[in-house]
Amino acid sequence: MTKAGVFLGLLTYGAVNAWTHLWPNQRFENMRPATAIVCLAAGLRHDGTMGRFTEARARRCIAAYHAGLAPTLAFTGGNSSHDAPPTGTQMAALAQDLGVPADAIVIESQSESTLQNALFTLPKLDSTSELILVTDSFHLPRSAVSFWWAGARDMQMLAADPDVTWGEVPQMLLIAETVKFWANGLRAPVYSLAGALGIPNSARLWIVE
Asked: What pLDDT sits at residue 1?
């Protein structure tokens, strides 16, 4: 059992590295129009400002919006660790500064995990199909699985970091992504089972934090 777990972990780590460094640099004109672009946050710096991954994701989403890929731009991400506005709010402010009208922006500012990004964002959208998910390439597959689990269908994935080079993404992030991929695979069904047993949503959200 231990050997199988180690093998599965190494296999997942290899897959994370592969899709991080080999994800295609999609051109906007080759993507299908969508109902909404969903931008997933990545946290804040120590001073409470957007971290480089969060800002890069936001800018990629804003560029996709201005390219006409969708009429709605949804920013999702909370903040439980800083005395600063939530990441979703900060990304939305950047979008408005860069010419995105306020009525085209949806803000989700309570989520503290990728699973919560999906659970809290989808109810705010007019449609849960034909979405474009934007995040870093190492995070895209887990994000897509999370949003599919929460009810989204017909999603396109757009990397915020096209043409990332080897060594550019810290290895600790790739290792953490490997662990989180399987952690989500355990937490999501437990959350769903708790709901099927009649446990209120408020009492089981901690499972997917």
From this structure: 59
